[in-house]
Design brief:
Strand order of the largest sheet: 1-2-3-4-5-6-7-8
CATH architecture: Alpha-Beta Barrel
Distance between the termini: 48 Å
Radius of gyration: 18 Å
Number of domains: 1
Number of helices: 12
Number of strands: 8
Length: about 250
């Protein structure tokens, strides 16, 4: 296994990519997403049942299906472990200030860019078959996605964007809607205006922006606004909706 020749944050500079969150535990679900034409999958350790033990098989399924394997971690101590298993990107929730961003970026990279724990006997280094000098250099090229979710994150966005090693900003619109006093109302003008402000600031720094969408129309709208990292629903929700369409059609 090698670090992908194409890096997620580099791809996002030139085109919009789409992919779901994954909360299931079956690698075949991830293979099906790749067969269905998705670009990436976000394996969710924050709100899903998966853990480090089965993460390697899920990442492997993404790789063999042509998907960028992104891992949303629960806490910073999972960053290095997810990368050891071959994650192409880590998505870190609850980034509210520059200090949070610094901790995340440095936990994801080896010195001198960071302080990630050093071990080359890991899956990401072909279990030590990869030359160590090549591995340690390439490993620092992974993508770090900072998930900015609340009012504090928006207020500190300028400082967050100055942190070296933050490659993508992901705006969590549900948490943002709650912090603005409109829990779950992600289409409120206040929420959309906040997203537009984030896009403008990130574009000025050439940092791609992502967010969560629940319809193709919304995905197209946000893509046209400049959002390139489009997280489209959740695998288990997509499956439920497809089943409901069938059952409703038979009623």
């Amino acid at each position: 296994m090698n670090i992908p020749k194409k890096l997620l944050h580099q791809e996002l500079q030139t085109r919009a990519l789409v992919g779901p969150f994954s909360k299931t535990c079956d690698p075949m679900m991830i293979e099906a997403m790749g067969a269905g034409g998705m670009d990436f999958v976000i394996i969710d350790l924050e709100h899903g049942p998966n853990d480090i033990v089965n993460l390697g098989n899920l990442i492997r399924a993404a790789e063999t299906s042509g998907l960028f394997p992104v891992v949303r971690i629960l806490s910073n101590d999972q960053i290095g472990r997810a990368l050891d298993l071959g994650a192409a990107a880590v998505q870190i929730p609850h980034i509210s200030c520059a200090a949070d961003a610094v901790k995340a970026a440095q936990a994801a990279r080896f010195a001198p860019q960071g302080h990630r724990g050093v071990c080359r006997y890991v899956r990401a280094a072909n279990h030590s078959a990869m030359d160590k000098s090549v591995y340690f250099k390439q490993a620092n090229e992974i993508s770090v996605i900072a998930q900015v979710e609340g009012k504090a994150g928006l207020e500190n966005l300028d400082e967050i964007l100055e942190v070296p090693g933050i490659d993508v900003i992901f705006l969590g619109v549900y948490d943002l809607s709650q912090s603005l006093g409109f829990t779950g109302q992600v289409d409120r003008p206040e929420v959309v205006d906040a997203l537009k402000e984030v896009i403008a600031k990130c574009q000025a720094k050439s940092i791609p922006v992502g967010t969560f969408v629940e319809s193709v129309d919304t995905a197209r709208k946000y893509r046209d606004l400049g959002v390139h990292y489009l997280s489209y629903q959740v695998d288990i929700g997509l499956l439920m909706s497809a089943c409901k369409d069938v059952s409703d059609g038979m009623a």
